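As described in the Methods, two query proteins were run sequentially through the folding procedure within a single session, without resetting any intermediate state between them. The first query and its resulting structure tokens are shown here.
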Amino acid sequence: MKILSKIQIFCCILFIFLFAICPTKALAKEILVLTVDGVIHPPHAEYVIKGIKKAHETKAEAIVIQLDTPGGLDTSMREIVKEILNSHIPVIVYVAPKGARAASAGAFITLSAHIAAMAPGTNIGAAHPVAMGGEKMDKTMNEKVTNDAVAYIKSIAQQRGRNVEWAELAVRKSISSTETEALKKGVIDMIADDLQSLVKEINGKRVKTVVGEKTLSTKDVKINEMKMNFRERLLNFLSNPNIAYILLMIGIYGIIFELSNPGAIFPGVIGAVSLLLAFYSLQTLPINYAGAGLILLGIILFILELKFTSYGLLTLGGVICFVLGSIMLFDTANPVFKLSISIIIPVTIVTALFFVLLLRLAYKAHKRKPVTGVEELIGLRGVAKTDIDSRSGMVMVHGELWQAISESEIKKEEEIIVEEVRGLTLKVRKAE
């Protein structure tokens, strides 16, 4: 009986212990952290939307979007903003780490957050819309686009109770503010040194979501960082202007090499795939068509060098056009979209060598007289072994006896030259 009593007591204690800790685990909350670093484009929009949906599925306490961007596509930015505005779970946009910025599209995203925060040494603003693809907007179109952006950012600022006047000036005048200025002007809600400080700071904050007010409880909350998957990382990688430029060059090399050597297949396949990937990348970048034209002109000059002797002048002109076109390729003052000179110089050298050396060799090989097969007989000298006329005769060519015909009579032992191969009969003429 005593043994049974001890077992019963132990089971009761164990049951009470499990009952006490299970609810705690069941109610454990987490904060989902998303990191958006770079140009706002479709991969980032897909990543953020997927993250917000995951937070709803797991019933996270909040979502933190750590943001560092120079701007990006209007369509992608609007997709992100729409998802934030309609989120049932509070979304905190945190401009970080130190030295980061929320420029252009980043300003819209930050203002749309339930809580907007910035790290020390960061800035926000400069949200005037610009045309992508190297297009220049006329006065009327520029006014339409600007007014549309102003109305959008004012609507966001009003909904979140932020400084509407500053939001309008960020679009119309491209003003930008530091984190301290933004806090004083009511653009953001707080400044936090790091993510841990931010989580502590937002504890107890009341925010208004589409389903009503919610008080954030972030004490002892678990921070769960959600990274991009392989597909999203790949698409994000391809959106780098330097990568787009290299893919474009590889595509051009492959296609030209395939056209100069039909049937090689591999260069053509690699070139076509590279061009398609480059076109995907270039759709998110501000292309200057004058720069693209100079690159094309440089390639044409390289090709002309293969067929004409210019003593290097065409190659020099091609190099100059190629370098200038590469520098001008992306039409923007934003350094994020600029090509690195450390990429331009090696690519230019490789391109010049590709055309001047490799394609020259291929071109010469294409023009070289055949050294195998019956085609090699054309132009060779031989000796008539019988009299030859337009109907019959025999010649010795390349150590072999061939039947031969000739438009003019040729005497035995006279030297001949092969003009044409007709099956197993050679058409010859008398050698001068």
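Immediately afterward, the second query was submitted; its sequence and tokens are:
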Amino acid sequence: MDRAETVRTYLNFEKPIAELEHKISELKLLIDDNTEDSLNSEIDKLEEKVNKTLNETYTSLTPWQKTLVARHPQRPHAMDYINSFIEDYSPLAGDRLYANDDAIVGGLGTFEGQSVMIIGHEKGSDTEGRIKHNFGMAMPEGYRKAVRLMEMAEKFSLPIITLVDTAGAYPGIDAEERGQAEAIARSTDCCLNLRVPIVTVIIGEGGSGGAVAIATANKIMMLEHAIYSVISPEGAASIIWRDAEKKEEAATAMKITAQDLMKMGIIDTIIPEPIGGAHRDKDHVIRATKEAISQALDELKDKKPDELRKLRHDRFLEMGRTL
């Protein structure tokens, strides 16, 4: 889609890019059959400058800027991925104990001809959707639903794909009253003990236990500008310095970027994003994610059930010993 036709949300550090693209949009409105070549030439120069500025900006993002990109409202969400590369998707609802939680979506489908179970956090793409999905912050029933679907996948020997994108589990009183911590712990335990392959992609925010609950996998991948952390930068700053405004300092100290986590061995793969972030070319990043998942599943397909479980246990035990 042409930039002039796209209504974008710009982040604070993208102000120079926004100004250039707004200028291009204004110039394109002047184009008609009698337009002089000089106007088209000016547009070409501005578009070249936009691409250069985008490249310079996005190859030197700070951890806090990556946090903002990971939270971008126009970034593709779980259902965008599911609708793009899962065929015959059949959503499954409810935890069979209390209720259905729309913050976690999941169901059966086909991925490249293979039956799979796919589970993910869904934030919603507009105001109505965000309210429905509670901004991707799951209640206990969301994690109990995830456990139900994972156990079903194991029963039928189906690989599991999880898409993580949450600021964290919902912290409200009602969630705590219904056993939030226990639900997260049981979901994490379920992941550890499954005897089928689990592949996780952190597509935006991977926040706290709310992320780990469905991300205790054989293969963990992150999009280039995604983040993965035990707590949000704002939360860490509030606890450590008692000042949420120190969030940028906290983001740097916490090593939450894909690049830092790759060095520490927490994740296996970084999936490249288009220049300017996933929100600028959703189709591109979804194709890249599909290819990465396909490769990960292919690497695990010949592993025996007990071997898959042992590899997962060893992976997380090693993190605890070395970090």
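Residues 12-60 form one domain. We note this only descriptively and draw no conclusion about the first query from it.
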